[in-house]
Amino acid sequence: MKKKAAIGFIFVTLLVDVIGWGLIIPVMPSLIAGLKHITVNQASKEGGWLLFVYAFMQFICAPILGNLSDQYGRRPVLLFSLFGFGVDYIFLGFAPSFGWLFLGRTISGITGASFTTASAYIADISNAETRAKNFGLVGAAFGLGFIIGPAIGGLLTGWGIRAPFYAAAVLTLMNWLYGYFVLPESLSKENRRKFEWRRANPLGSLQNLKKYPAVAGLIMALTLVYLASHAVQSNWSYYTAYRFSWTPKTIGISLAVIGALVVMVQAGLIRLITPRIGNERSIYTGLLFYAIGMFLFAMASQSWMMFAFLIPYCLGGIAGPALQATISGHVPPNTQGELQGSLTSLMSLTSIIGPLLMTNLFSYFTSEQAPLLFPGAPFVLGGILMLASSIVAYKSLKQG
User: In this structure, are residues 89 and 24 in contact, taking their beta carbons and an 8 Å threshold?
Assistant: First the structure.
């Protein structure tokens, strides 16, 4: 019962965290374009830099926070992270210039380890049978937050483009207070270890992954998934605003639909499919669906198609928890924090490269310099990377 209650606490904490994030995504293109006095497709490049600075700071700081959570426990690190997000939203809400947006994203990158620590927390209280199911709850929190956040964000834009940022700040700081009073510690004293700077530097954090050669190929596959996902994550708002003239409200609705589909997959479908077909087949099936979804987005010629093509894309969500569960199953309990910190470093490294690659590709193929006008170019690249990931995963699992 205690473990179930702890999973419930972490789910609510992550849910409110994601609602705050979901609130602001639909308005970012309009905010950047307004502050810089540029068009939406030009704003995508600037948006790429905001994602870059967040990811760069997270790359440096995530392994430090992951290792600190192995010594002091998950709870204090998670609370520190949530407080940093609250401060970031205040900066974004009051930003008089693009530079202030940049500063806010820098702060949240330093403290942004909520998903790392939550993943380690879940690993602490999971066994081999429940690990994939419990990691699926992280995805479900992400999806549910994405239903509620963008929907509220779209409505709040009626009070001005900054209103979602104020709401996100209030919500995140309330979540921080909730965590302070309610969230229990998950890491027992006997499973803690001393903090070592050698293990906490970001490059050292990546080198830690070498300790587990059995999962090296799977980690490479996960890297390609992270990189490919930026075709959607970094570009969705800009692509749809440019290609179909979507307003922040329509973008918010589309993100809410993504959230609904993700919840169905992560909280429902994974529990039915993964136990039946196993982690390995879940990985291949999911990656294929991701690739199909990406190629379809690239070819979409009408608004409704983007909504329809979300179905195969979101079905791809069965791959992530299966990959993560397979990797985490090869690691002892007292290094789960280190592993999750290393995986977040890896994700941050791809988030340093991914947004700049995908937003510049989009910006170039919507500019006059491009040999042809093709705003869907990032989706094509994303689809190719997903197919490459499935090949790498297949080779790794067959060797293992």
Answer: yes
Distance CA 108, CA 93 (A): 14
- Higher-pLDDT residue of 187 and 38 is 38
Mean pLDDT of all residues in 348-376: 90
pTM comes to 0.80
- Per DSSP, the three-state class of 370 is coil
Q: What is the dihedral of CA 217, 223, 224, 225, to 10 degrees?
A: 110
How high does pLDDT run on average in the chain? 84
Q: HSE (CB half, 13 Å, CA atoms) of 102?
A: 8
Q: Return d(Cα 336, Cα 340) in angstroms, integer.
A: 6
Give the whole-angstrom CA distance, residue 88 versus residue 169: 8
Percentage above 90 pLDDT, the chain: 26
Cα four-point dihedral sign 357, 358, 360, 365: positive
| b/e 236-264 (16+ beta carbons within 10 angstroms → b) | bbbbbbbbbebebbbbbbbbbbbbbbbbb
Structure tokens at 284: 């291949």
- Counting Cα atoms < 13 Å in the Cβ hemisphere of 251 gives 27
DSSP 189: G
| CA 112/CA 118 separation, integer angstroms | 11
Query: What is the Cα–Cα distance from 160 to 187, expressed in whole angstroms?
Result: 43
Contact (CB, 8 A) for 70 and 337: yes
Question: What is the tens place of the pLDDT at every residue in 186-224?
Answer: 666 776 777 777 666 777 767 777 777 767 788 889 999
Kindly indicate the confidence band of residue 1, based on its pLDDT and cuts at 50, 70 and 90: very low
First-to-last C-alpha distance (Å) of the chain: 35
Which ranges in the chain belong to alpha helices (H)? Answer: 2-24, 28-36, 40-72, 74-94, 98-111, 114-124, 131-156, 163-182, 197-200, 202-207, 216-233, 236-244, 248-263, 270-299, 303-308, 310-315, 319-328, 336-364, 377-399
